[in-house]
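Hallway conversation turned thread

IA: we were arguing at lunch whether anyone had actually written out Potassium-transporting ATPase KdpC subunit end to end. Turns out nobody had. So, for the record, here is the sequence (184 residues) and right after it the structure tokens. Reply here if something looks off.
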Amino acid sequence: MLKYIIPSVKLTLVMIVLCAVAYPLLVSGIARFAPGQGKGETLSVNGKVVGYANVGQSFTRDDYFQGRPSAVGYNAAGSAGSNKGPSNADYLKTVQERIDTFLVHNPGVTREQIPAEMVTASGSGLDPDISPASAAVQVQRISNLRKIDAQILQQLITEHTEKPLLGPQKINVLKLNIALDQIK
């Protein structure tokens, strides 16, 4: 019996050192060389921090670009999805309410033109990015409210579209809205 206990205790101690000490130190060390040193990229306007680039936030005014809905109310401490599937009646009702709200706030947009990401929450509930199509479908609303030519807004979207090596094109909503406020 003792011949099994001693190797088990040794293996346990080795795994504790690897998983609870070495790995966290390695990840922390790598983060020190990342932009923001692993603390997140804060965005500031006139010296005041207005948010983090990697955490979505709610924009409730119609004269701003809207991000994806959040299943957790954009609470970064409670990052989560809704865990409801596409056949769940409550989920379908929530999506329909989001579609109806989007259509009310974006006159001239049809149901078919709404990108799915604008009415469905991301897995984390904190997605800071939208697709160029999701930004484009909001241009007319913002153009009308801010009295800015739609072509200028389209150019703003183009300038803020990130084109990663892998994955789809995306736009950070907070960065886009900061740039929107700087248009005179």
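OS: looked through it. The CA atoms of residues 6 and 12 lie 10 Å apart.
IA: good, adding that to the notes. Helices lie at 2-31, 89-105, 132-136, 139-146, 150-160, 173-181.
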